[in-house]
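Exercise 3.2. Students should predict the tertiary structure of the chain below and write it as structure tokens, then compare their answer with the key that follows.

Predict this chain's 3D structure.
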Amino acid sequence: MMKTSKGIFLLILLMISNTLFAQDAAMADGMRSEGKIYVVVGIILIILLGLFFYLTMLDRKVKKLENLLNEKQVKTKS
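Answer key:
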């Protein structure tokens, strides 16, 4: 879980730093004036939240499988 958290944090930092260096704002100004920028931001947030939810669910499933595997190994040793 710790590696996943560090990876997510690194990804967020990379995305933030990438947007800070963006120089071409003409397209963003046009979308903002038409109100479309909020739709784009909303869709991006929905996609990111879905990915984070999927990763946490996948991590839980992997933990369950690891615990089952460890339990089976302990039973076979004793």
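Discussion points: DSSP finds three helices and no strands in the chain. The helical segments are 2-20, 26-34, 37-77.
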